[in-house]
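User: Predict the structure for this protein chain, please.
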Amino acid sequence: MRSSGRNTGYRLVHIAVLGLAVLLPICPLQLFAALDSGEVDVTTGADGAIHAKAHLLFSAAPEIISALLTDYAHWPDLFEVRMRVASVTMQHGVATTDLRIEHALMPGERRLITESRQFPDGRIVTDLAGGGDFKRYHREWRLGAGATPNQTVADFELIVAIDTMVPDWMIALATRRELESHFRIVKEKAARRATQER
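Assistant: Here is the predicted structure, written as structure tokens:
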């Protein structure tokens, strides 16, 4: 029993070290200062979930942004985190996606099963479908026309909780970094597609 406890402790320390290696490539003061810098607001809620919000401007029409965000079979192309699509089914306007995600903070694959719906008012809403390794998952995009036909104003909201022993502050930092890279990739792909369609 004593040996098992030591092994568990070693594993937790190993996970924490891996996480810090990924999350702290710059000094801690720079990282925590970055938390206050604007575009992505990430907090840990009293409910134990990570809450994230962002207000974004894309240099492409809403139709292009919507097409990228609802191309469920190619979701992994929009993220730097390693993931793969195990299956996608579409039925009665609901896209059910089974994702397998690899993350340095959590060794092995984590399964995320979601249902996504697109609404006429520009909302794209994704919720947990049950099963998998996530306790909560809610993502909502609200897309609207910008000042010109080739602009989209977007509001983004994410609520996520996963069964893990990794500290909440570390998950929050990772979430912020991953969302920033996600938004950057979407912006780049959208701008490229908008240029091709002109």
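The chain has one domain: 2-197.
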